[in-house]
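Ticket #4471: structure export looks truncated?
Reporter: QA, pipeline team
Priority: medium

Steps to reproduce: submit the single chain below to the structure queue and open the exported record.
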Amino acid sequence: MSRSNLLLAGSRPGAQGLVLGLGFWLCVSASAQNYLKNPEFESQLGTTNWTVGYIRGGPPDFEIRDRTTAASRGWAYGDFGAEFRPFHNKLAHAYFTQTVTNLTAGRLYTVRGWMKEDWWSPPTGTNTYDPVKDGKRNSFLVYIEAIGGQGSPTSGCRASVKAVNPTPVYTNADVAVYATDTWCEYRVQQTPDTNRSIEVRLHLDKLSWDLTYYLPVMNAYFDIISLTP
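Actual output as written to the record:
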C-alpha cells in the first residue's frame, strides 16, 4: 500500500465521513493519474519537478527552502515533505512551484495537497491553538495556490484560486484556506490557462516583522501534492 493510501486509511473520522459522502467523485479523483512529478518530495527538488520562486526576498531570506524529513506527512523513517522556514525578522515570501503543460483546454482539474504550520503559545502561556485569537495570521500565511484559467486575475492573462480544507478543524473562514497546526488536506479545482497549463504553488508568506526567537516556529510544511483530471 502506498504512503498516500496509508494516509487516507489513517485519516481522522471527519475526513473519512467526507470520503463516504463524496463517494464517486473522490474514488475517481483518488485513482486518476497525478500529473505532478515528485508529488511526495521523495526525490531531490530540481528543474524537472519542484523549484522555488520568490515574491518578496530571495534565497538568503530563508533558512530552510527544501525537502526535509520534518515536513513528512507519513510515519516511515526517511519520508520527506517540503518545508520553508524564514531566516530573519524581516518580510519574505517564497513558494515551491511546478507547472503542468499540455492539459485539455476548458477542463476542470483538481489540485490536492496536505499542509500544516508551526505555532507558538499565546501570551497567556496556554497550549490551546486558537486561530481566531492567536492564529498568527498577521505574521505568516501558509497556503496552496493553483494558477490557470479561472479565479482572481494575475499576471500573464492567468487567474488564481486557493485550495480549501472542506472539513476544517476550526470553524472561522480563513482556516478553510490557510494551514493550521494540524495536518489537513486542501483541495481546489482549476482550468488550464491560455497556454493549456496549470501552475501549483505552495506558499509561505511572512508578512510582518517578528522577534528572532519566533523564527524556528514559523515553519510551513507540505506533502502529497497532486494535480488530477
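Status: closed, not a bug. The export was complete when the record was re-opened. Leaving a note from the reviewer for reference: The chain has one domain: 35-228.
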